Amino acid sequence: MKIRYDRDTCIGMFQCVDEWEAFEKNLDAGKADLVGAEEVEEDVFELEVPEDAEFDAKFAARVCPVDAIELYDDDGEQVV
Q1: What is the domain class of 2-72 according to CATH?
Q2: Which residues are listed as membrane-spanning (predicted)?
Q3: Residue 2: which of 63, 43, 45, 42 has the closest Cα?
């Protein structure tokens, strides 16, 4: 499973931070950071989700009020 995070879309509610430890508050920027992610486009980050973290990653994506977080299964199908 892969998570894709559009940091430009993020409005800094930090709900994802409460759901999954891979997200951290960046108070200087007023946005969350996805720790260990690779920037694949300007302000768009991707990270392979460890199998034991899939549940938390799904919750992080679902609680984002601006849909800045998407999850894709191993076949590339969007699941959240």
Answers
A1: alpha beta
A2: none
A3: 45
Condensed to tens digits (0 to 9), the pLDDT of residues 17-75 reads 999 999 999 999 999 999 999 999 999 999 999 999 999 999 999 999 999 999 999 99
| CA 5/CA 74 separation, integer angstroms | 17
Q: Is 56 helix (H, G, I), strand (E, B) or coil?
A: helix
DSSP β-ladder status, 2-6 and 44-48 = antiparallel
* Structure token digits, residue 1: 């499973």
State whether residue 17 is helix, strand or coil.
Answer: helix
